[in-house]
Amino acid sequence: MLTGKQKRFLRAQAHHLDPIFQVGKGGVNDNMIKQIADALEARELIKISVLQNCDEDKRIVADELSKGAKAELVQIIGNTIVLYKESKENKQFNLPK
Predict the structure, then answer these.
(1) In a 3-state reduction of DSSP, which class is residue 48?
(2) What pLDDT digit, counting tens, does each position of 48-60 carry?
(3) Pfam families attached here (predicted)?
(4) pLDDT reported for residue 91
(5) Rounded CA gap, 81 and 60, in Å?
(6) How many domains does the chain have?
(7) Residue 14: domain span
(8) Sheet with 80-84, edge to edge strand ranges
(9) What is the sign, positive or negative, of the torsion defined by CA atoms of 25, 81, 62, 48?
(10) pLDDT, tens digit, 9 for 90 and up, residues 24-52
(11) CA 42 to chain centre
């Protein structure tokens, strides 16, 4: 579990990132979860955009993605979800204690 201080740090880091995935009408599927898990291993911190035509609520989408990819939900801002997962091989962030 991330602490408040760690989430603040990650939100600041994520500010400049562009979303690299979009969840649309099809919602969340296993293939998307696998791709997101791979992207998290490579980058640790990613943004996902929830499109207007997505049938599910963005909080449900965020929950499904974070559980499926075994990642931490950093924040939901507007229609953008920020996920973090510590990488085994490509460590990029030293989180504050």
Answers:
(1) strand
(2) 999 999 999 999 9
(3) CRS1_YhbY
(4) 85
(5) 11
(6) 1
(7) 4-84
(8) 21-23, 45-50, 80-84, 72-77
(9) positive
(10) 999 999 999 999 999 999 999 999 999 99
(11) 13
Looking at the domain assignment, is residue 66 inside a domain?
A: yes
Q: Is residue 35 part of a domain?
A: yes
% residues pLDDT > 70 (the chain): 100
Q: What is the CATH number of the domain that holds 60?
A: 3.30.110.60
pLDDT recorded at residue 93: 87
**Distance between CA atoms of 25 and 37, rounded to whole angstroms?**
21
Beta strand ranges found along 3-97 (DSSP E): 21-23, 45-50, 72-77, 80-84
Residue 14 lies in a domain: yes
- Rounded to 5 degrees, what are φ and ψ at 64? -60, -45
Q: What is the largest CA-CA distance in the chain?
A: 39
Distances (CA, A) of 84 to 15, 23, 50, 53, 55: 13, 17, 17, 25, 24
